[in-house]
Write a structure and sequence with these properties.
117 residues, alpha+beta, four-stranded mixed β-sheet, 4 strands
C-alpha cells in the first residue's frame, strides 16, 4: 500500500509520519486490499478543534473517505482510523452477504432444474 501524507499549516515530523503510517497500515488487517492511502493533516487556528484529518483510501471498487476534527492531532487520527475500520468491516460484510445470496440463488436454480450461464 502506498501512503501519501500531506501536511497543511503544520510541520510533518518523523514521529507524526510514523504514527499515521502505523495506524493506516493496521487497516490492511481487515482482509481488504488497500491500494493506496492519501492523508491530509490540517491545522487551522480554530480554538475548539484546530486539527483536521482527512483520509482517502483507494480500494478495488468504491473508495472510502473519512474525516474528523479534534483538539489533539493524535486523537483525530485515532477517530478517522476507527471510522475507516468500521467502513471496511461494513464493506466486507456486504461482500460476504452478496456472495452468500448468489450461492443460495444458484442452489435454488439447480433444484428447479435451471442452469445458470
Amino acid at each position: 500500500m502506498q501512503i501519501h501524507i500531506t501536511p497543511r499549516n503544520l510541520t510533518l515530523t518523523g514521529a507524526i509520519h510514523e504514527f499515521v503510517a502505523e495506524k493506516v497500515s493496521h487497516l490492511e488487517g481487515h482482509g481488504e486490499t488497500i491500494l493506496g492511502a492519501h492523508i491530509v493533516l490540517l491545522h487551522n487556528h480554530d480554538r475548539k478543534k484546530p486539527y483536521h484529518v482527512k483520509v482517502h483510501l483507494a480500494l478495488p471498487g468504491p473508495d472510502l473517505h473519512a474525516e474528523d476534527a479534534e483538539a489533539d492531532l493524535y486523537s483525530a487520527i485515532y477517530k478517522v482510523v476507527d471510522k475507516l475500520s468500521r467502513q471496511i468491516s461494513k464493506l466486507k460484510t456486504k461482500h460476504k452477504e452478496l456472495k452468500k445470496h448468489r450461492t443460495q440463488q444458484e442452489r435454488e436454480a439447480e433444484k428447479r432444474g435451471y442452469k445458470r450461464r
